[in-house]
């Protein structure tokens, strides 16, 4: 039997070690589907409910495995559906390859059914490598470069394969003119800056007295070096959201998240430092960094395309975080751990007390901060966490303390709704032996999560550890946006856009063979988490949470609180509850480390 182009594509993916392709069928990839059948489904075809979810699963897989995520879709609508997930990968710098079909070559340019101009449509999302295969000899190069570029530039690449090309007999490139033979693999590499540049960076860091470090996901492989550096320099370390799992939160000088969803100690450290070191982060919000003339600053980033932005850095080191820090550390002069470091540790300890008290504030019916705070104490050390975009991202950022080998992620830069459930499904294919938890708003659950529960239902029985927990913060509101409207524009809540129907998420889970429970009282929260963590299958907890609990920013600007008050005066539907809740939470934050004004809300 001859090898067709489609057989060759799957074989090449196998050669690259690709084990899963997150995908959805359509006649634009019928040739590939037939090849999958011939190849005994290797690499494994993982069927999502929607191509965007297939892309999110590929992103989750890539984020939690460090390996390339591969997704596939048919021409036209399938390719269009993939896009949002692919942008999520591109903006968060994770390697994802998309393989998409196209109409037959004979129909191209004929406004044919399902023909869209994919080269134009994908030009931006796959700007580093996008190719349409029109003759067999373009392979394996097109696949090899797509995978190598995705890895090397930590981005999205795409290969378009017209349906009729998939059916051609494969013939490899030859030694002739205008042929492009190709090879497999990409050796690992760790670029380092020159000695001169390292010395310049060391001079800046040695001169400072109050050093603040900001790390992102690029520092994940350099945990020991960052710890050593913080010790040598007497520094504190704040974490961008994507770097939340780069360093444990049980170190006393780790101030936690930074930014609008961040912590007050991170905010304060940036306000008062005289020196800033950024490692592996493109954290975008300059207003949470030191004033532009406040600190001398050094950045380390592996990507020359990304380095030097966001702050007037004096030294922009291009290099792998671990290898660069290993070379920098011997040049650093140890600083005494004086008032600076003491203040950071004190502020951080106080922050965690404040979080405890915020979680203990009574709410109607359940305080979402309590839901996530209660989870913190129960998290398995090897858990994989995903938060969706919405208020759950606030509580993920603030209440969960990373420790052990925990991993966590969210849509950091695109901040799209909907990846929570598909991310953890992707994670389960990368790590079937680890528990995974998604924190998802009811809006995101209705948008994508419910459909993807069906995908979890299809595959969970083969996972070594079947625990995949989906916690829905059911506040019947697009709450994050409601709060943004209140805080930023002073607009009252616009119910036609914000209110969501109540849905019985746990009942739905049970109806498809999963398990679940609805929680309507604070006293049921801990039990529900425990039951989910002991479950023998994916489990949905439908937490009925209070939309009136405000995600107040770390600096709690009075102007924002005032704007919220204005909205209330203009007639916000939630007004009484919000005033009460907002003030209560604020008062808790202000308390000087003193008494708990309320007992834990799980008393009833
Ligand atoms: C695809 C997409 N659509 C819209 C938004 C804007 N947005 C951000 S958060 C949010 C509300 C999310 O509501 P929900 O999932 O219920 O979470 P909650 O904030 O209520 O906890 C919206 C509409 C977005 N980020 N992504
Ligand atoms: Mg909601």
TrEMBL record:
Domain Thiamine pyrophosphate enzyme TPP-binding: 388-543
Alphabetical keyword list: Thiamine pyrophosphate
Any matching Pfam family: TPP_enzyme_N
Residue ranges occupied by any Thiamine pyrophosphate enzyme N-terminal TPP-binding domain in the UniProt entry: 4-120
Top-level taxon: Bacteria
InterPro entries per UniProt: DHS-like_NAD/FAD-binding_dom (IPR029035), POXB-like (IPR047211), THDP-binding (IPR029061), Thiamin_PyroP_enz_cen_dom (IPR012000), Thiamin_PyroP_enz_TPP-bd_dom (IPR012001), TPP-bd_CS (IPR000399), TPP_enzyme_TPP-bd (IPR011766), TPP_POXB-like (IPR047212)
Domain Thiamine pyrophosphate enzyme central: 198-328
Family membership: Belongs to the TPP enzyme family.
Protein name per UniProt: Thiamine pyrophosphate-requiring protein
